[in-house]
Amino acid sequence: MTPPPIRFGIWALVHGSRAALRDPDEPYDASWDRNRRLIQEAEALGFDSTLVAQHTINPHHAPQDQLEAWTAAAALAALTERIEIIAAIKPYLYHPVVLAKMALGIEHISRGRFAINLVNAWNRPELEKAGIGFAEHDERYTYGREWLSVVEPLMRGRTLNHDGANFQVTDYTLRPADPYRARPRIYIGGESEPARALAADMGDVWFINGQPIEDVTALINDVAARPRTGPRLRFGLSAFVIARATEAEAHAHHMHLFALASRDIEIRMVQHANTDPKSVMAATMRRTPRVGSNGGTAAGLVGSYDQVAERIVAFNQAGIETFMLQYQPFEAEMRRFAHEVMPRVRRLTGAAERAAE
Q1: What confidence score (pLDDT) does residue 289 get?
Q2: 98 CB contacts (<8 Å, ≥6 apart)?
Q3: What's the 3-state SS for the chain?
Q4: What's the pLDDT at 123?
Q5: 57 neighbors 30 (Cβ within 8 angstroms)
Q6: 7-356 CATH fold
Q7: Mean pLDDT of 309-327
Q8: Where exactly are the structural domains of the chain?
Q9: Nearby residues of 46 by Cβ (< 8 Å), 6 or more positions away
Q10: CA angle (276 as vertex; 273, 282 as ends), nearest 5
Q11: Exposure of 85 by Cβ count < 10 A (0-12 exposed, 13-18 middle, 19+ buried)?
Q12: Radius of gyration of the chain (CA)
């Protein structure tokens, strides 16, 4: 099967640095101004997408700043022209009718470039301290499935009658409907069995946390083989990139970030204590030493420009379409990637396409 076209995205810096919080080359900054500049530059550099993670309080260190995802996504939609804007959503934080209306609003602002990324929460204090409560892992996915079964038809402009365990919606229609496509795209995060089932049943794209290619291939094969109606499920991967002219230079910067991250050990211990122990993401992260969030460097995108490009193409041949990337220092390394790695990937994929003709 022909690999899908490669799309590159970046994680918005909604809670600052991704690898180490005490980096002299990247002072902590989760401000709206920085994120606006970052996403506008990413668009100019040729990136296809950005993911705006949703947290109400900083999940790494509560006293630090945290950008609000949905107001930021609406503003970014108005200030960009081409890049896809993905806003993460934790179902317990918004009633599905309200969220569907907000999603359609941002879809209109962006002229058809908006998407939601459903995640069922792992950071316990965020919900507990708000008095919402933190349900058991599988219960959160049951809730999220019903929540999405309300949001999805409403985003399509359909009239909905729903009588479920958590929501009762009667004769509800949202207008104006989406004039650009059937509805905004739906990304699903999480690697547990309920997450995989939800992605196969209701998602457009399944996000996988960064990990070695053999593990990613097994995950893709498992979910792609499941029964599904509608278009085929597509796949995305989170990864932290360290690309340099030589492998030795990349390895040296990797070790530098490891040393900086070691200064955050007390913060990481608090984060670990706040994380749902049943979260598959947390178990995956513990398997491989890495820097960065959501798998980070465990995906192996550390090396020379040629090595990183070749590994990206290998992931693509395994089925990954969207690469949601992190760097540190973010802006400088994002530019390096755009100038050095992107052209190499294009040459490799172009050569493969010509060989297949």
Answers
A1: 78
A2: none
A3: CCCCCCEEEEECCCCCCCCCCCECCECCCCCHHHHHHHHHHHHHHCCCEEEECCCCCCCCCCCCCCCCHHHHHHHHHHHCCCCEEEEEECHHHCCHHHHHHHHHHHHHHHCCCEEEEECCCCEHHHHHCCCCCCCCHHHHHHHHHHHHHHHHHHHCCCCEEEECCCCEEEEECCCCCCCCCCCCEEEEECCCHHHHHHHHHHCCEEEECCCCHHHHHHHHHHHHCCCCCCCCCEEEEEEECEEECCHHHHHHHHHHHHHHHHHHHHHHHHHHHHECCCCHHHHHHHHCCCCCCCCHHHHCCEEEHHHHHHHHHHHHHHCEEEEEEECCCHHHHHHHHHHHHHHHHHHHHHHHHHHHC
A4: 77
A5: no
A6: TIM Barrel (3.20.20)
A7: 98
A8: 7-356
A9: 8, 338, 342
A10: 85
A11: buried
A12: 20
Contact yes or no for 325/241 (Cβ under 8 A): yes
Rounded to whole angstroms, the Cα distance separating 272 from 281 reads 12
Half-sphere exposure of 44 (CA within 13 A, CB side): 9
**Mean pLDDT in residue range 91-99:** 97
Q: What is the pLDDT of residues 231-273, one digit of tens each?
A: 999 999 999 999 999 999 999 999 999 999 998 887 776 666 6
Closest CA to 178 of 116, 111, 83, 86: 111
Please name the residues in contact with 79: beta carbons below 8 A apart, sequence gap of 6 or more.
36, 39, 40
Residue type, 297: T
Angle at 339 between CA 334 and CA 344, to 5 degrees: 115
Rounded Cα gap, residues 297 and 305, in angstroms? 15
- Overall residue count recorded for the chain in this entry: 357
CA distances from 257 to 25, 99, 151, 268, 269 (A): 11, 38, 40, 15, 18
pTM: 0.94
Angle CA 238–240–241, to nearest 5: 125
Rounded CA separation 39/57 (Å): 22
Structure-block tokens of residue 34: 């920085």
Token output for 101? 């209306």
Q: Rounded CA gap, 2 and 354, in Å?
A: 12
β-strand partners of 52: 87
176 cis-preceded (ω within 30 degrees of 0)? yes
| CB atoms inside a 10 Å sphere around CB 158 | 13
